[in-house]
């Protein structure tokens, strides 16, 4: 096998490593949002919780993108309850998951 035979695997490993480096956040807001809001939040998982809040969770590429998400919440009047950075390697939630 030549070195070129291993290139696709290396590229795939590199892409997976890059995804692992993208920070993930959990944004909790007041009120229950439907899963269809996921598209509005750039594909992040949106899950209404039994306590009357909604968790928006997933990778956010940088601080500018995070501020953009928070600005969207502010602009439509959705109250922010908490913002929590998640540990590296946290699995992504499903977009339509109903939580505790």
Description:
By secondary structure, the chain is of the alpha+beta class. It is built from two helices and four strands. The chain has helices at 7-21, 63-76; strands at 24-30, 45-48, 53-59, 80-85. A four-stranded antiparallel β-sheet has the order 2-3-1-4, covered by helices on one side. The termini are far apart. The model is unreliable at 1-8 and 94-100 (pLDDT under 50).
List keywords for this structure.
alpha+beta, Alpha-Beta Plaits, 29% helix, 24% strand, globular
Main sheet overview: 4 strands, antiparallel
- Proportion of helical residues: 25-40%
Quote the beta fraction. 15-25%
Structural class: alpha+beta
Radius of gyration: 17 Å
Give the end-to-end Cα distance, rounded to a whole number of Å.
51 Å
Secondary structure tally: strands = 4
Identify low-pLDDT runs: 1-8, 94-100
Number of helices: 2
| Global geometry | globular
CATH class: Alpha Beta
Number of domains: 1
| Strand ordering within the main sheet | 2-3-1-4
Mean pLDDT score, rounded?
A: 81
SSE diagram, text form:
Layout: H1 7-21, E1 24-30, E2 45-48, E3 53-59, H2 63-76, E4 80-85
Antiparallel strand pairs: 1-3, 1-4, 2-3
Task: Sum this structure up briefly.
By secondary structure, the chain is of the alpha+beta class.
């Amino acid at each position: 096998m030549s070195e070129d035979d291993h290139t696709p695997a290396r590229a795939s490993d590199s892409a997976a490593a890059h995804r692992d480096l993208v920070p993930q956040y959990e944004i909790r807001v007041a009120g229950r949002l439907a899963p269809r809001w996921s598209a509005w939040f750039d594909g992040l998982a949106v899950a209404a919780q039994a306590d009357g809040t909604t968790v928006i969770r997933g990778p956010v590429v940088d601080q500018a993108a995070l501020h953009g998400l928070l600005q969207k919440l502010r602009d439509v009047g959705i109250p922010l309850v908490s913002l929590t950075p998640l540990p590296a390697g946290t699995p992504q939630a499903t977009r339509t998951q109903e939580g505790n």
